[in-house]
Amino acid sequence: MQEGEQVIDLNGRVALITGAGSGIGRASAINMAANGAAVMCSDIDSQAAEGTVAAISEAGGRADSIGLDVSDSGEVERAVAQTVERMGKLNVLFNNAGVGGGFDWHQTIAVNLTGVYYGLLHAAPYMAANGGGVIINTASVAGLVGLTGPEPHPANEDEGGAGAYVAAKHGVSGLTKQFAVNYGRYGVRVNAIAPGYIYTAMTAELRELEEGEAYLTDLHPMGRLGQPEEIASVASFLASDAASFINGVVLPVDGGYTAR
Ligand SMILES: NC(=O)c1ccc[n+]([C@@H]2O[C@H](COP(=O)([O-])OP(=O)(O)OC[C@H]3O[C@@H](n4cnc5c(N)ncnc54)[C@H](O)[C@@H]3O)[C@@H](O)[C@H]2O)c1
């Protein structure tokens, strides 16, 4: 960073974001584009990804979209290649796609953990061979601690339960540190964001439960849930040279959730 440099400047950078059609991914795509990045918006729901592109284009930013299921290694490899092909390079990968409740153990691990692994696997060597880059993973407070519910609940492991989600997100924390160690010398920074509960589609059902939102609110010392934009601004920061010496951290952005 130069003295007096603009703090978050992503001009000239190309970012690929997974799960960019909704919630945190969509807000991050919009935020990174507003900070000057050209953004490849990917999502298993390609129409949703196109919606994010439309929002960026309307605001005068540069974006494109691709359909991508992160649990398929070949698709992730192609998404990295297509981003380079269409946008000239790849500076930033945001491994953000994920699923919440309603998925079994194997599906949850496949998307939330293996999907992040595929992103690291296919993008880190490209970045290392092309002057460096930044990879950001979306972990969770569930990547740092176990989860609690409104009622003391059994893990419901036959339905996936909280165990699959917590195991996947702890895995993301571990992968973040290992790739940061492996690739730091090649100019690739790898970090994770660990959000508290955020107002997105993923938490809608939970928030609608009787006592649900009040219970979740109480878990956060700030007395509220977070907005997707409050994660997006941190993703842009980590992607930028303002974070040029941050490598291998799992950064809670949780209103104090993990502070107690
Ligand atoms: N919302 C929260 O409270 C919260 C808290 C901590 C962590 N997270 C994590 O944040 C990330 C984003 O979640 P969100 O809250 O924005 O949810 P969201 O449901 O709004 O968005 C998730 C997006 O990922 C996409 N997706 C799902 N499976 C995919 C796949 N296999 N391949 C590609 N895309 C896929 C969905 O289509 C959707 O657009 C997830 O990794 C989630 O685990 C969310």
Structural account:
With 260 residues, the chain is an alpha/beta fold. It has a single domain (14-252), classed as 3-Layer(aba) Sandwich (Rossmann fold). Helices cover 43% and strands 15% of the residues. The protein is built from 8 helices and 7 strands. It has helices at residues 23-34, 46-58, 73-87, 105-129, 161-183, 204-208, 212-219, 228-239; strands spanning 14-18, 38-43, 62-67, 92-95, 133-138, 188-195, 250-253. The protein has a 7-stranded parallel sheet, sandwiched between helices. Helix 1 (23-34) crosses helix 8, helix 3 (73-87) runs parallel beside helix 4 and helix 4 (105-129) packs parallel to helix 5. It is globular. The mean pLDDT is 95. Nicotinamide-adenine-dinucleotide is lined by residues 18-19, 21-25, 43-45, 48, 68-71, 96-99, 111-112, 115, 138, 140, 195, 197-198, 200-203.
Strand order of the largest sheet: 3-2-1-4-5-6-7
Instruction: Enter the CATH topology name.
Output: Rossmann fold
Put simply, the count of helices is 8
- The percentage helix is 40-55%
Based on Cα principal axes, name the global outline.
globular
CATH class: Alpha Beta
CATH architecture: 3-Layer(aba) Sandwich
Residues in β-strands, percent: 15-25%
Query: How many β-strands, per DSSP?
Result: 7
Head-to-tail CA distance between termini: 34 Å
Overall residue-averaged pLDDT value: 95
Bound molecules: nicotinamide-adenine-dinucleotide
Biggest sheet descriptor: 7 strands, parallel
Task: Count structural domains.
Answer: 1
Q: What is the name of the CATH superfamily?
A: NAD(P)-binding Rossmann-like Domain
Sketch the topology as an H/E string, one letter per element: EHEHEHEHEHEHHHE
Gyration radius from CA atoms, angstroms: 17 Å
**Low-confidence residue ranges:** none
Task: Give the class from helix and strand content and strand pairing.
Answer: alpha/beta
